[in-house]
Protein: Coenzyme Q-binding protein COQ10 START domain-containing protein
Organism: Pontivivens insulae
Amino acid sequence: MRPLILSAFLILAACAPTAPPATPPEPTPPPAPATEGLIEIDLVETYPLSRADLRTFMEENPITAFFEPSDDIAPVIGLEILSGTWPEPGTVRRVALADGHYVIERILENEPALFRYQIWVFTNDVGRGVEQIIGTQRFVEVDESTTRLEWTYALKPRNALTRFFVNRQVPAVRAYLQSGIDGMRAALSEQ
């Protein structure tokens, strides 16, 4: 009977929301970028801009500014460079969320046709189930005035048990990411 009560207590404790930290987190050494066991969310959108113009637009108007908050995902309210120079590879920044939580991310690659990053510090509930996120944005020239953005947002669950719970969150994450893509499209159409 005791193991059952202890197990029930641990499950309930694990389900309690994580409180925001009293102070912003500092980066820990990042894990090697995951290449296996990822849950991938793929989004594709075509924009009426050359690759160079789309990249410039995205540098001047970060996609985080276009995300629509949801009940599951707090909006981004601040970005702070911790080391390096954005957007150079190796640069690390802390992302502040409206609910008092943070994530820390770094740039893995930044080339004209590719932007790749890793998120590995989470102070919110995401950190319970996700070890890291690898984001890959490919900029494919359709023609000289049209570029297709292919965005893969790959979540690496901590283990087989958390994989189940992470999979259940994929629709909310997909909708959040899509809101950024849609917001960018709307902003471009207003120019």
